[in-house]
Design brief:
The protein is α/β, with parallel strands linked by helices. The protein is built from seven helices and eight strands. β4, α4 and β5 form a beta-alpha-beta unit.
Length: 221
């Protein structure tokens, strides 16, 4: 079953690009109804335009959180949406916002990708904090959004190893490649099977050695 999604972004839109590429190649049965950004001039706007996807720019500057969210909700309500997909959207969504997109089964129909193996390293510096902590195995999490920051039911996680010669730049780049694989794959799983909680979708070859089956808790050691 194809799913209708809105993608919310604040920056360059690399995960948006991965999603649209997956749709173009037939690997993701979805349609992006709208790309909404809160930062005028964000790269996600150009990416959407190249794929013929409608865009909406709703700046938050000068507005209260409530005022901004009301404008975003109004834009999203113009479309028939199955899910809202956050792709580098640098705004914390309030419970009032989320209540507009609640599924009868109890979860909010808002999906996020986070650059760590949650619950480890929530916040905006997931890769940096994991690198500074010295983890041997890092990862990416796709989860349903709830009222807490970087929280909510986990849909999937994928790991990648840290190498001895890694810099923060190479570490983040490896993680970003995983993001671009994982996000479209999770969305396709939802399109095919509906929402199912926690799946480990990708592990690199060193996981068994370095992770020793600790799964979600690796980065918290």
């Amino acid at each position: 079953m194809s799913i209708n999604i809105a993608v919310l972004a604040s920056g360059r839109g690399s995960n948006l690009q991965a999603i649209l590429d997956a749709i173009s190649t037939g690997n993701l049965d979805a349609k992006v109804q709208i790309v909404l950004v809160n930062v005028p001039g964000a790269g996600a706007i150009d990416i959407a335009a190249k794929h013929g996807v409608a865009t909406a720019v709703v700046p938050n500057a000068g507005l209260t959180r409530k005022e901004h969210e009301e404008k975003v909700i109004a834009e999203l309500k113009k479309h028939d949406l199955d899910f809202i997909v956050l792709a580098g959207y640098m705004r914390v969504l309030s419970s009032g916002f989320l209540s507009n997109f609640k599924d009868p089964r109890g979860f909010f129909k808002v999906i996020n990708i986070h650059p760590s193996l949650l619950p480890a390293f929530p916040g905006t510096r997931g890769y940096e904090e994991a690198f500074e902590y010295g983890v041997k195995v890092a990862g990416v999490t796709v989860h349903l959004v709830d009222e807490k920051v970087d929280h909510g039911p986990i849909l999937a996680q994928a790991t990648f190893s840290r190498t001895e010669d890694d810099t923060i730049e190479s570490f983040k780049a490896r993680g970003l490649r995983i993001e671009h694989e994982l996000y479209p794959q999770v969305l396709q799983n939802i399109a095919r099977d509906g929402v199912t909680y926690f799946k480990r979708l990708k592990d690199d070859a060193v996981q068994a050695e370095n992770n020793q089956g600790t799964d979600r808790e690796t980065a918290r050691r």
